[in-house]
Amino acid sequence: MTWISKCTGKSGFGASSTAEDVTRNVDGTGLTAIVTGATSGVCFETARVLALRRVRVVIPVINLETGKKVKERITKKIPNAKIDVMELDISSMESVRKFASEFCSKGLPLNILILNGGVMTPPFALVKDDQGLQFASNHIGNFLLTNLLVDTMKNSVTKCGREGRIVMLSSDIHKINDKKSNEAVYGPSKLATALHAQELTRRFIEEHVYVNVDCLHLGVIATNLARQGGFSAFLYGVYNRILKNVPQGAAATCYVAFNPQAKPVSGDYVADCNWNSAQDPELAKKAWEATLSKTNGNY
Questions:
Q1: In the chain, where are the structural domains located?
Q2: Prediction pTM value
Q3: Fold observed for domain 10-293
């Protein structure tokens, strides 16, 4: 059970490493990151640690009042933290386009894009764009947001001379193909995320763009999302003692988003701060085209 072991991989880090461990002695002065889903849990820890390392962090939120409280939590511990809160509903293409336009109008660089936002197993619902809430939140919104911001990231790479980093949150559940399970939509949405990372990487390599794209499995972590995923109160209480904690859960994200030793270009699948090959270029290309059609064939 690697997620509770003390073993490390080639990176020098492993399941027991924390987000602060993997970013120690790395200075983010002058860098800007967008971290979606950062109102709680692992995503909040990711934003906090990047702010601790002097990265300017933009936190998109559905509710601006909630975002204000998140900013206060971070700046209370890190007074010099640079935190911007902006409105975004990742399940709405209209909201995604508005957010991207407003961010670009600020004239900020974009060095790190971390796509944490999404839902696990909510009741089925359709969003305004006539898409299922789960697939819209976990894949389509993130796909559109990335495409709308990619030119800003390319320009930032050129100006600062440091590679850009795009991090997409997936899950090992993407390997499950059980149409009767609770993961019937969640798994495919996370598979689409992994394929998105592969195709985007192929395009960057073809264009000679210096941007690193990685897809992550964070592991099983003691957060409210685990409860949402079907753990009973009793089992959650038991597993809470052996699962990764939040600082450990945020380690992989912070490592590939911020640590200089992370591979400059990959598109592979990452777990416990180490890479696993996960390539299917033909399927990735087909998935890209299919998603592009859902965003009306344009950005």
A1: 10-293
A2: 0.83
A3: Rossmann fold (3.40.50)
